């Protein structure tokens, strides 16, 4: 499989609090880990929280060996909770980082299976090559998203809600947290997009779908997404991972 991580400070913020990575497994073909994290707490606390979370995930990934699908699911959940533990403990030990936190969204790609974990409001999208369909895999952990799922507000109201960016859970802000875990499959030619809200606050799902579908080169697709988000204001950091299932058929 192919993949890459891209990040941009944006046009307004003086620093970048996002982190991420795309890491193929060194010993197992068709296995990769994709991660994005959107730090909060101000420079440099947000930087520390997001970078630490990604490093923990990468370290744990490097230590893995061949497992069943259910074991991969358990591994992902445990790794994310361990990242929470490390960030929280570090903040407790360093007063200047007290209150820091981060979103954490990760996907384990194992052959044709995808195991997705989410804490916060960074997102994972799946583009189906055969069906030409694009959908959000994760659900945001935010006040507005929770109100929408409870039927108290409409989707349009959720998108413009004053508490849209208030998270209901994050990595590092509490000693314990739960991760939302999803399982799905992907096929040859399919693509994944993991991204922070610096991208999704600016580009609609339709725009993301078009850019992911119409650009064969992953780097080009990612750069166009970043450029468009910046053109529309770029008030936030913009980070993304794009991964592609490059099985036998591949893309036309």
Automatic annotation (TrEMBL):
This is Protein serine/threonine phosphatase PrpC, regulation of stationary phase. It holds the Pfam family PP2C_2. CDD domains: PP2Cc (cd00143). PANTHER family: PROTEIN PHOSPHATASE. Residues 2-245 form the PPM-type phosphatase domain. SMART domains: PP2C_SIG (SM00331), PP2Cc (SM00332). GO terms for molecular function: protein serine/threonine phosphatase activity.
């Amino acid at each position: 499989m192919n993949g890459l991580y891209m990040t941009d400070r944006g046009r307004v913020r003086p620093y970048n609090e996002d982190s991420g990575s795309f890491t193929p497994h060194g010993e197992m073909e068709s296995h990769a880990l994709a991660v994005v994290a959107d730090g909060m707490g101000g420079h440099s606390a947000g930087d520390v929280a997001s970078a630490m979370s990604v490093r923990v995930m990468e370290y744990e990934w490097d230590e893995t060996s061949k497992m069943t699908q259910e074991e991969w699911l358990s591994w992902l959940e445990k790794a994310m909770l361990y990242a929470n533990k490390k960030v929280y403990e570090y903040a407790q030990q360093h007063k200047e980082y007290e209150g820091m936190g981060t979103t954490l969204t990760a996907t384990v790609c194992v052959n044709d299976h995808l195991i997705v974990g989410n804490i916060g409001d960074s997102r994972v999208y799946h583009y189906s090559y055969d069906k030409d369909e694009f959908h959000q895999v994760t659900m945001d952990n935010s006040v507005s998203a929770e109100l929408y799922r409870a039927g108290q507000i409409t989707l349009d109201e959720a998108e413009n809600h004053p508490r849209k960016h208030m998270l209901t859970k994050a990595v590092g802000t509490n000693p314990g947290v739960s991760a939302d875990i999803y399982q799905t499959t992907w096929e040859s030619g399919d693509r994944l997009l993991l991204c922070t809200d610096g991208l999704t606050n600016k580009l609609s799902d339709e725009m993301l779908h078009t850019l992911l579908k119409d650009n064969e080169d992953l780097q080009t697709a990612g750069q166009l997404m970043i450029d468009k988000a910046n053109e529309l204001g770029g008030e936030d950091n913009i980070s993304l991972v794009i991964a592609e299932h490059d099985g036998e058929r591949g893309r036309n």
